[in-house]
Amino acid sequence: MPGVAAAVASIIAWFGSFLTASVIRYIAIKAVIVGVVVIILPIVINNIVYKFMQMAVNFAGNNSPDNSFIGSLTFNASGMLAYVIDAMSIPEAFSIVMSALALKFTLSFFSFKNLWLMR
Q: Are 119 and 42 in contact (CB under 8 A)?
Protein backbone atom coordinates (compact mmCIF):
# COMPACT_ATOMS: atom_id res chain seq x y z
CA MET A 1 0.00 0.00 0.00
CA PRO A 2 2.79 2.53 0.61
CA GLY A 3 3.73 2.29 -3.09
CA VAL A 4 0.20 3.11 -4.19
CA ALA A 5 0.02 6.08 -1.82
CA ALA A 6 3.33 7.37 -3.13
CA ALA A 7 2.12 6.99 -6.74
CA VAL A 8 -1.13 8.82 -5.98
CA ALA A 9 0.79 11.55 -4.15
CA SER A 10 3.17 12.02 -7.09
CA ILE A 11 0.25 12.17 -9.55
CA ILE A 12 -1.49 14.78 -7.38
CA ALA A 13 1.75 16.77 -7.06
CA TRP A 14 2.27 16.69 -10.84
CA PHE A 15 -1.32 17.79 -11.43
CA GLY A 16 -0.95 20.61 -8.89
CA SER A 17 2.29 21.85 -10.46
CA PHE A 18 0.67 21.72 -13.91
CA LEU A 19 -2.28 23.81 -12.70
CA THR A 20 0.04 26.27 -10.98
CA ALA A 21 2.10 26.71 -14.15
CA SER A 22 -1.09 27.17 -16.19
CA VAL A 23 -2.44 29.81 -13.81
CA ILE A 24 0.87 31.67 -13.76
CA ARG A 25 1.06 31.58 -17.57
CA TYR A 26 -2.55 32.82 -17.79
CA ILE A 27 -1.89 35.71 -15.41
CA ALA A 28 1.33 36.64 -17.23
CA ILE A 29 -0.41 36.69 -20.62
CA LYS A 30 -3.26 38.80 -19.22
CA ALA A 31 -0.77 41.24 -17.66
CA VAL A 32 1.10 41.63 -20.95
CA ILE A 33 -2.13 42.14 -22.90
CA VAL A 34 -3.44 44.70 -20.38
CA GLY A 35 -0.11 46.51 -20.44
CA VAL A 36 -0.07 46.68 -24.22
CA VAL A 37 -3.69 47.78 -24.47
CA VAL A 38 -3.50 50.35 -21.66
CA ILE A 39 -0.04 51.80 -22.33
CA ILE A 40 1.17 51.18 -25.89
CA LEU A 41 -2.04 51.06 -27.93
CA PRO A 42 -3.37 54.49 -26.79
CA ILE A 43 -0.03 56.09 -27.68
CA VAL A 44 -0.06 54.56 -31.15
CA ILE A 45 -3.71 55.49 -31.73
CA ASN A 46 -3.06 59.02 -30.45
CA ASN A 47 -0.14 59.43 -32.84
CA ILE A 48 -2.17 58.14 -35.78
CA VAL A 49 -5.16 60.36 -34.97
CA TYR A 50 -2.88 63.36 -34.41
CA LYS A 51 -1.15 62.84 -37.76
CA PHE A 52 -4.52 62.52 -39.49
CA MET A 53 -5.86 65.66 -37.80
CA GLN A 54 -2.69 67.54 -38.67
CA MET A 55 -3.01 66.52 -42.33
CA ALA A 56 -6.69 67.54 -42.37
CA VAL A 57 -6.05 70.93 -40.74
CA ASN A 58 -3.12 71.61 -43.07
CA PHE A 59 -5.27 70.68 -46.06
CA ALA A 60 -8.11 72.90 -44.84
CA GLY A 61 -5.73 75.75 -44.09
CA ASN A 62 -4.03 75.55 -47.47
CA ASN A 63 -7.29 75.38 -49.41
CA SER A 64 -9.27 78.05 -47.57
CA PRO A 65 -9.15 81.71 -48.57
CA ASP A 66 -9.40 82.82 -44.93
CA ASN A 67 -7.05 81.13 -42.44
CA SER A 68 -8.61 82.70 -39.33
CA PHE A 69 -10.91 79.75 -38.53
CA ILE A 70 -8.00 77.38 -37.75
CA GLY A 71 -7.18 79.20 -34.52
CA SER A 72 -10.59 78.34 -33.09
CA LEU A 73 -9.86 74.59 -33.14
CA THR A 74 -7.94 74.78 -29.85
CA PHE A 75 -9.14 75.80 -26.40
CA ASN A 76 -6.86 78.25 -24.61
CA ALA A 77 -7.54 79.03 -21.00
CA SER A 78 -5.99 82.30 -19.98
CA GLY A 79 -6.39 84.81 -17.20
CA MET A 80 -8.77 84.02 -14.37
CA LEU A 81 -10.03 80.81 -15.99
CA ALA A 82 -6.48 79.46 -16.22
CA TYR A 83 -5.85 80.33 -12.58
CA VAL A 84 -9.04 78.57 -11.44
CA ILE A 85 -8.33 75.49 -13.57
CA ASP A 86 -4.80 75.27 -12.22
CA ALA A 87 -5.86 75.91 -8.61
CA MET A 88 -8.47 73.16 -8.75
CA SER A 89 -6.06 70.73 -10.51
CA ILE A 90 -8.67 70.01 -13.15
CA PRO A 91 -6.20 68.68 -15.78
CA GLU A 92 -4.75 66.16 -13.31
CA ALA A 93 -8.20 65.07 -12.13
CA PHE A 94 -9.40 64.73 -15.71
CA SER A 95 -6.34 62.63 -16.55
CA ILE A 96 -6.95 60.31 -13.58
CA VAL A 97 -10.63 59.88 -14.44
CA MET A 98 -9.89 59.16 -18.11
CA SER A 99 -7.18 56.65 -17.15
CA ALA A 100 -9.57 54.87 -14.80
CA LEU A 101 -12.26 54.74 -17.47
CA ALA A 102 -9.77 53.40 -20.02
CA LEU A 103 -8.61 50.72 -17.58
CA LYS A 104 -12.21 49.73 -16.76
CA PHE A 105 -13.09 49.59 -20.45
CA THR A 106 -9.99 47.51 -21.23
CA LEU A 107 -10.50 45.07 -18.37
CA SER A 108 -14.12 44.51 -19.39
CA PHE A 109 -12.82 42.69 -22.48
CA PHE A 110 -11.11 40.03 -20.38
CA SER A 111 -12.79 37.22 -18.55
CA PHE A 112 -11.34 36.48 -15.14
CA LYS A 113 -13.94 33.86 -14.23
CA ASN A 114 -11.56 31.01 -15.20
CA LEU A 115 -9.12 32.28 -12.60
CA TRP A 116 -11.75 32.23 -9.82
CA LEU A 117 -12.82 28.66 -10.63
CA MET A 118 -9.34 27.29 -9.88
CA ARG A 119 -9.43 28.05 -6.13
A: no
